[in-house]
What does this fold into?
Amino acid sequence: MDKKTTNSKVMIVGGGISGLMAALSLDSLGIGSIIVEKSPNLGGKVKEYSQVFPDFRSGKNITKELIDRVKQTSRILTLVSTTATSMEQYDGGFSVATSDSNRHDVGAIIVACGFDVFDARRQEEYGYGVYPNVINSLELESLLGAHETRGGKLLRPSDGKPVDRLAIIFCVGSRSKRLGNPYCSRICCSYSTKQAIEIMEMNPDASVTCFYMDIRTYDRGFEEMYQYAQELGVKYIRGRVSECSALPNGDIQVRAENTLLGRPVQGVFELVSLSVGMMPCPDAENIARLLDIERSKDGFFTRKDSYFYPHDTNREGIFLAGTVTGLKPIKDCLTEATAVGSRVAAYLNGK
Amino acid sequence: MNHNEVKNVDYGFRLSGKPILLYQDRSLAADESTHHMEKALRQMSMEYYTLERCLQCGICSSYCPVHLLKANESFSPRSFIQKTRLGLLDLSGDELWMCTNCGHCQMVCPFEIPLLDVMASLRHLIVEQGAGHVPVSIKSSIASIASFGNPWKEEPANRVKWIQESGISQSLGTEETPIYLFLGCFTGYDRRARQTAEAAMHILQTARIPFKIMAEEEVCCGDTVRRVGDFSTSEKVRKINRDIFLKNHVKQLYVFSPHCFNAFQDMFVKEPECEIQVVPLLELIFDLLHQGLIKLNTYQNTRVTFHDPCFFSKHRGIIDLPRQILDSMTGIERVEMEHYGKNSLCCGGGGGGIWRDIKKGERLSEIRLDEAINCGADILVTSCPYCLSMLEDAGKGDEKYRDIEIMDIFELIGKGIRDENN
It folds into this structure.
């Protein structure tokens, strides 16, 4: 493989934190890139997060810093509200057409299109989309981001009443063969715990009850965060919630089995948040077809060799970064995006 | 709050005239009241916070002796913690009083949760702040300690009168400084436990060790009363005892009971200026045997097993000492029960268990006697007045346990003393 690619530019599909970081990594090696982002803004999902775990940094600030750095360099071109429409391979590179009727000749492509959250309406027994006070974790996250303007308490969607009793239901759309997502989404335990901490910290009288199956706070600092949540008085009940039903005043009744006591448990909550799991990006299928790369049965992209070539696809010159290969927390995405830069640089140098 | 409450529904089926409830909701409510309960515990008890560390792995429950009994299947330290944390603990129930404080749970807990402190702290809320139900027998024992200095409303003078009557002389008329013995309530008042003290004093006399008992003055050590939650009474008796020790210039205090040993060890740690060394009498007697100050006859092929008092073995790591004593006695074959040493099973007497009335067939001491029989022992020896009493009570009137003798280690030694004068 000592052929040298004629074009040294790289196209990055996706302008979330992985795409931005990959561009910065390439930039630091002197390689230019074009970020193609479907939505009108860079920053992906992370810009919506008020705080991230386990260190409670602002998600907004993390994306802002990445975007600022991207803007400071002339080697990175960002195209928002743009998608790739077709791709042709030629000797030593790819020619990609974008929806803005341009054509870009690049030496390599990095797929960093991210993930999607599970549509909680599919788990009908929880009444998401039917009861206004059953929300998903992203909606809770934006409520938390807005709390300062609302006087230190969450205000629930149905009637704007301040919330004192909240339930968080873990593993919604994860670890369910029935729903086609048999895998663990990895980060829900931690982000839900983080949200519980935020609620308890701003309203120490609140009652936050988490219904969980297993607590998987696996990384450095995560378990400590879980212990801290319990110290604040967050209650954890082991058991998958069987149903949520709305009461006339808008409250939600939750039923589950407390499997640690072997007894049914029920509670009435003013607001219920569903900690939805993660799914492959909705565009993954299109992108896979467009670039002719493989996906696995679970819908995530397949790595050429997850030990030695974790960033490579089955097709030479096309690489992967971030959650397209499976779910990971923000820091892992950034690490992977940094690494893909050096992998692509080596490829462009014919190594 | 709960508008959707499910009513007990009678669908009209009748069996011999009785309506049959087809659906009955027996679920626990995680509602505002449990939330307030949990918050209240959180605010009132510092020790409560350690429960937050619990991962519910359940290793404690697999070791808990109370959980072993069929009658107590519903009790386990793990579910106790779970209920407490969710505010579901029933303070008017018996659950809080089941723990015998053997300490196995905290010995094995990977997160080092001091469950016994939590128990004491929660019982404290009930006993001193009236938050729930206290078993009657425990209530009366506490009251008696507060006013009489012992759990049975006995006259303080009777604590020592029997010694004078039995003719044991304490000082031997020598000029030597005597050692100080702390009798403890059981040894002071209980007819059976007195025999163990007599045996011990006989050993001391044989070895020509002068000793002094401050029994007219001494009061309960305060260990068990603290463990059932009455901190102020425990503190009160501690101060009385401390003043007596100081008045007598006690430097070294020998105690009969592992419970007293624990109480004083912990209590004097709190007061560094009170430089009293507390030693189990067992240790002294081991030394006397070791130094050859007591000569023993040869026993006749006796198989002896040792029941470890929890407050020696699990709480203080005193495991080898009694075994070394047994091994040094010729003619005695030491056999071990299924559970021994640190893994020993509790007799059920600790943590206030000695003051509770537990039905025959539901006692931990019965498991222990079964184990002793199974290991083929002729004599079951222990070194704690609580254990002795619990084990003997379990054996009483039961044919099954007729052939096993239960005694204190001091009695076993005392019986074998070779009187050199003869």
Chain B touches chain A through 28 residues (CB under 8 Å). Residues 50 and 113 of chain B are 6 Å apart (CA to CA).
